[in-house]
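Collaborator request, handled under Task 6.
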Amino acid sequence: MIDTATAVDLCRTTMVSAVITAAPMLLVGMAAGLTIGLLQALTQIQDQTVAFVPKILAMAAVLIACTPWLIEHMVEFTRMIFVNAGSP
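C-alpha cells returned to the collaborator:
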C-alpha cells in the first residue's frame, strides 16, 4: 500500500525530472527566438519562416547533442521508480 507522502514525493520527483529533461531544448529555443526576434526587429524582416526554421534547427541540434545525457537521466529515473516500487 502506498501512503500519501510517498505518492506526493513520487509526483514531485516526476515533475522535477520532466523539467530537467525538457530544459535544454526549451532554453535553446527561447534564446534562439529572442535572438531571431531582435534580428528581425533590427532588419525589419517580418517573415514567419525566418523565425521558425532556425529555432527548429537549434532545438534539433541540442536534442541530438543531449540525447546521451537525456537517456541516462531517464534510465536512472526509471530505475529509481522500479527500485522504490518493490519497497513497502
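The cover message to the collaborator said: "The first helix runs from residue 4 to 43. The mean pLDDT is 89. Please let us know whether this matches your experimental observations."
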